[in-house]
Fold this protein.
Amino acid sequence: MSLPESNSDQPRGVLVRRPTTTIFTVLLFIALMALAIGCAIMAWEMLQYDLQYKPPANLRSATLPVLTHNLLV
């Protein structure tokens, strides 16, 4: 069995057409950028509160515990 010459100009294997960029690829990229920007804004907002999960007591709403109590019942 003979081996093909390595200096041949013909490509080896199956030739496949390179996929083109579609509108769905662009929309996926736009959605990814929107998520990244949203996460960056959320992180910047949390840094203003020293990365606390609960807001300070003077910024909490008085009706929040009542709504939470109604949801648990």
About this structure: Helices lie at 23-48, 64-72. Residues 21-56 form one domain. The radius of gyration is 29 Å. Residues 37 and 43 are 10 Å apart (CA to CA).
